[in-house]
Amino acid sequence: MSDVQNSLSLSKRIDSVSPSATLAVDIKAKQLKASGVDVVGFGAGEPDFPTPEPIVEAAIEAAKDPKNHRYTPTAGLPELRQAVAAKTLRDSGYDVDPSQVVITNGGKQAVYETFQVLLDPGDEVILPTPFWTSYTEVVKLAGGTPVTVFAGPEQDFIPSIDAIEAAYTPKTKAIVLNSPANPSGAVWSRAQVRVLGEWAIKRGVWVISDEIYEHIVYDGVETAHIGAVVPQVRDQLVVLNGVAKSYAMTGWRVGWLIAPEYVAKAATKLQGHLTSNVDNVAQRAALAAVSGPLTAVAQMRTAFDRRRHLIVDALNSIPGVSCNMPKGAFYALADVRDLLGKPLGSSHDSFTSSAELAGALLSQAHVAAVPGEAFGAPGYLRFSYATADELIVEGMRRLRDWVVSA
User: φ, ψ for residue 110 (rounded to 5)?
Assistant: First the structure.
């Protein structure tokens, strides 16, 4: 490469990052739909319900108010930060000060900023695996090194503390806790959360607790919030959350992080150079969401619960496919390892990876699922059941027909 070409190259930092696999599947599915192909999409984790009407009305009123047409504090509207603190007490069971809250442009920005302000080059972050696809990439963007600790369906996708301890090195700076979890739907018990918190205190590492699915749990299971279960860990705890999943507000782009005040100030400083304040109309909508009742959330959860059984029962009826019943979120992580290397579909092709299998499933059966490679879990496919019942039935019929037609 010439000196001129070298000077015009991309940074090694961005070249080390992979595109979002979930968004890539969703984009390809939408492109096929736009060309007239009837695709059943299980790719993106996006509730198919409209945002509850009172939240929309709050946004309409906010758009009419000129005070929302101007810059506001970078860390978020003071009343929204206060409301998030109050919501944390209501839902998580412990006090935080509004000064610890930073409102972000969606939950992803909260994730990004957290690792940017905590990590130095070479720092390691332990990721219980299967993990949400963006964790590894955001860690790498901050100069860190992801360290994965895999746990399979026989462990309900939750690694033991011994496995986590085996991954610890003097370079370990943080561990990520995502419960309820994407992509597996696993929910850590209070006992498991307590052990993890006590381990983090002993080892002196940060706990990054992603609680975006906290309200989406089933069968009487409760989300164990580590800040309440292990109060002593709060000095080394960053909580990530937002309105996207619980309130069907993915497009509104409002999330937040809750951290020790000096960390929140550092994230605010970074955000000041990134995006300044979050859109004020969306913040007013989020204020209505977190301040209001959880009635709409409960109604959506009831629908997700029904769909959970529908899709898992269908997956487990397909030869070569097995799937644990998720306890939370709205994803089914199906084990398709027994399908690899076997002839599938009308073309009788065989595949060596779940990534190849997912590509063929989309192109041949017109069913979109995310391959497990995106989550550190090759041999699995993730299906989002945040979609209509009839689409689940049709998509599972297509999958079954595609598998057994060979």
Answer: -65, -40
Instruction: Reply yes or no on whether the pLDDT at 214 is more than 60.
Output: yes
Q: How far, in Å, CA of 330 to CA of 212, rounded? A: 12
231 and 303 in a common domain: no
Strands 255-258 and 322-323: unpaired
What average pLDDT does range 222-245 have in this prediction?
A: 98
Q: What's the rounded Cα separation, in Å, for the pair 339 and 379?
A: 9
Residue 58 lies in a domain: no
Instruction: Check whether residue 270 and residue 307 sit in a common domain.
Output: no
Examine the fold and report which residue of 273, 292, 311 is the final residue of a domain before the chain moves on: 292
- C-alpha 97/C-alpha 85 separation (Å) is 6
d(CA 369, CA 391): 13
User: SS3 letters for 132-189?
Assistant: CHHHHHHHHHCCCEEEEEECCHHHCCCCCHHHHHHHCCCCEEEEEEECCCCCCCCCCC
Give the DSSP letter of residue 69.
G
Looking at the 3D structure of the chain, how many domains does it have? 2
Identity at 321, one-letter amino acid code = V
Q: How far is CA 301 from CA 23, 110, 262, 285, 307, in A?
A: 24, 25, 36, 21, 10
Burial class (CB in 10 A: 0-12, 13-18, 19+), 251: exposed
- Which residue range(s) make up the domain with 359? 3-50+296-404
Going by their DSSP bridges, the two strands 101-104 and 124-129 should be labelled as unpaired
pLDDT of residue 93: 97
More confident residue, 232 or 21: 232
Model confidence pLDDT, tens digit, residues 39-69: 999 988 899 999 999 999 999 999 999 999 9
Query: Residue 140: how many CB atoms within 10 A of its CB?
Result: 19
CB atoms within 10 A of CB 353: 14
CATH number of the domain encompassing residue 314: 3.90.1150.10
> pLDDT tens, 288-345?
999 999 999 999 999 999 999 999 999 999 999 999 999 999 999 999 999 999 999 8
What Rg, from alpha-carbon coordinates, does the chain have?
21
Whether the model clears a pTM of 0.85, i.e. scores above it, the answer is yes
If asked whether residues 288 and 352 sit together in one domain, one would say: no
